[in-house]
Write a structure and sequence with these properties.
Blueprint (H helix, E strand, L loop, with lengths): L3 H33 L6 E4 L4 E3 L14 E6 L3 E7 L4 E2 L5 H11 L10 E3 L2 H10 L14 E3 H9 L4 H12 L2 H15 L17 E2 L1 H11 L3 H7 L3 E4 L3 E4 L10 E9 L3 E12 L2 E12 L4 H22 L1 E6 L5 E4 L5 E6 L3 E5 L4 E8 L11 E7 L6 E7 L8 H6 L1
Antiparallel strand pairs: 1-15, 2-18, 3-4, 3-13, 5-8, 6-7, 9-10, 11-12, 12-13, 14-17, 15-16, 16-20, 18-19, 19-20
Length: 411
């Protein structure tokens, strides 16, 4: 009589014999081939969103209670905006476009002074006609020769309305023709809510928005000469001699431009640019604060300056280096025989920005071999603008063990 235990023993023996036969067969006919075969490549998987937001509480900016404002940081994006987005009078901020068009049509480089502009009797008559209206002016005399740079300094520093008109006529033959150029430039830049009806901004029908003027400021600052001129505290030009920049914020909070503007209809206005260094990176802050209240120009500009100082102080406080991505596992390397090793950034991915800023993230992977060593570089992760990203290596946590002899023999 065969017992249950006896049956189990015979089955186990059969299995062992089968295994032995298989092993002997392999050893006899193909073991050498199996063991010499190249191992198949491992696979690497990594999961990472295309965009990540810097963690933290949303920034609460000290926006003005009246008017409108916008701030952006080049290379990072818009920090925020406030107030009415409908077009409104902007006063002498319009002269930024006047200077932009002139420098597009008659570019200057380095210390170039540009062509001479001879003041005509018509220019003098225009100057005299503007005096009773209390406009910002620079005295001119018939036959006087101003260089292009002189005229741009008179335009942008003491905000000479008569020089805005003179430059337009010099460039295009008439103010009307120059206005066509100004509005065409606005259209080309995507300033959809802007309309120029005079080159100086004295007319309240010249209207724009903070967003549009920030777009223009970005474009204008690409000219090194423009950036140099708007940063000048003062300059010397023919006839009147020394002229002063009306932008009283120059040199404070990193401010190096750009243009003030004030009229009864527009209130106080400032398009500004400022430098800010964070984690060794020099950033350019560009913003606009419009339509600030006040009984007269000094009060209006004092109010707009007060707002801008607060905004720039807040920008300096919140724009920092933040950890966007911790050095946590993002994926794994898996060998053909099932061994795994976690993949993670070699160090935390840190970016410059502010809480809530959406940052582009990209990652690349290297095709792994059959196995990896501890700390092996298997790719990179990049965060930020494509032209200046933060780049961190992706590395394997641990070495993957070799396959077993059995796996090698059976695969």
């Amino acid at each position: 009589m065969t017992t249950t235990a006896g049956k189990k023993s015979r089955r186990k023996l059969v299995v062992l014999l089968a295994v032995a036969v298989l092993v002997l067969g392999l050893l006899g006919g193909g073991a050498g081939f199996q063991l010499s075969k190249d191992l198949p490549a491992a696979t690497l998987t990594a999961a990472l969103a295309d965009t990540l937001k810097i963690p933290g509480k949303a920034v609460d900016m000290p926006w003005p209670s009246a008017g409108s404002a916008e701030i952006m940081i080049e290379g990072l994006g818009r920090l925020g905006r406030s107030g009415d987005t409908a077009p409104a009078a902007i006063g002498s901020v319009a002269k930024v476009m006047t200077a932009y068009v002139i420098l597009q049509e008659h570019p200057l480089e380095g210390d170039d002074q540009g062509p001479g502009i001879t003041v005509t009797a018509a220019d003098v008559a225009d100057y005299n006609a503007r005096i009773p209206m209390g406009q910002s002016l620079v005295k001119v005399t018939a036959g006087e020769v101003m260089t292009e740079r002189d005229a741009l300094e008179a335009l942008m520093l003491p905000s000479a309305n008569n020089v805005a008109h003179m430059l337009g006529v010099w460039d295009a033959g008439s103010e009307a023709a120059f206005l066509t150029k100004m509005n065409a430039a606005a259209d080309e830049l995507g300033m959809d809510d802007t309309d120029y009806t005079d080159p100086s901004g004295f007319l309240p029908s010249t209207t724009s928005t903070a967003a549009d003027q920030v777009i223009l400021a970005q474009a204008a600052l690409k000219s090194e000469v423009f950036a140099e001129i708007v940063a000048l505290p003062s300059a010397t030009i023919p006839v009147v001699g020394k002229i002063r920049n009306y932008n009283d914020l120059l040199g404070s909070n990193g401010v190096f431009g750009i243009k003030t503007g004030s009229t009864d209809e527009a209130g106080g206005n400032l398009v500004f640019s400022s430098h800010l260094t964070v984690a060794g990176k020099k950033l350019t802050v560009i913003g606009a604060v419009f339509n600030q209240p006040g009984a007269n120009t000094p009060e209006q500009l004092a109010q707009v300056n007060k707002v801008v100082r607060k905004l720039l102080a807040k920008v300096a406080a919140v724009v920092k280096e933040y950890t966007l991505l911790a050095a946590d596992p993002l994926g794994e390397v898996r060998t053909a025989w099932g061994a795994t090793s976690a993949v993670r950034p070699a160090e935390p991915v840190k970016v410059v920005g502010w809480p809530g800023l959406a940052v582009e993230v990209r990652h690349t992977t290297k095709a792994p071999g059959p196995e990896v060593e501890t700390g092996a570089v298997v790719g990179t992760v990049e965060a930020g603008p494509a032209d200046s990203p933060v780049r961190v290596e992706l590395r394997a946590d641990t070495a993957t063990p070799d396959p077993s002899l059995w796996w090698r023999l059976t695969h």
